[in-house]
Design a protein that fits this description.
Radius of gyration: 22 Å
Organism: Luteibacter yeojuensis
Number of strands: 6
Number of helices: 1
Strand content: 35-45%
Keywords: Signal
CATH topology: Immunoglobulin-like
Protein name: Lipoprotein
Shape: elongated
Structural class: alpha+beta
Helix content: 10-25%
Order of helices and strands: HEEEEEE
């Protein structure tokens, strides 16, 4: 085989690899949604505990996972506590499927907490 033919074969192989890599775009945070998020205080003996339940839904075309962040704020909007978690752990969520989560156990009750926001902060494939 001539040097010229080898270069053409290598160039075509590289081109095929690059084009197949761009055809399969990785999932990103915008491909996930949090639904039915609700915060409740659970009274018991001692300090109240949080329930921060919701569902993380994968709208990506492939199986992937996402990390969520919950911010607990005071009445003025100041973040008092912020926690992150991977609702599916180290497992991917199938396309169109969801996983339930409750990250309330990560938060300590503060009487001035009055507003809670949740967002998808990272996405990856395990």
């Amino acid at each position: 085989m001539t040097d010229f033919r080898i270069r053409i074969i290598l160039a075509l192989g590289a081109l095929a690899t690059m084009s197949s890599g761009t055809a399969l775009a990785a999932c990103s945070v915008k491909d996930f949604a949090v639904e039915s998020f609700a915060v409740k205080l659970q009274q018991g003996s001692g300090q109240p505990r949080f329930s921060m339940k919701g569902q993380l839904v994968n709208h990506c075309a492939e199986a992937a996972a996402a990390q969520i962040r919950i911010d607990a704020k005071d009445a003025s909007g100041k973040v008092l506590a912020s926690k992150q978690g991977w609702p599916a752990g180290t497992s991917n969520i199938e396309p169109g499927k969801s996983v339930d989560f409750d990250l309330g156990r990560l938060f300590r009750y503060q009487s001035d907490m009055s507003d809670y926001t949740v967002l998808v902060s990272d996405a990856k494939t395990w």
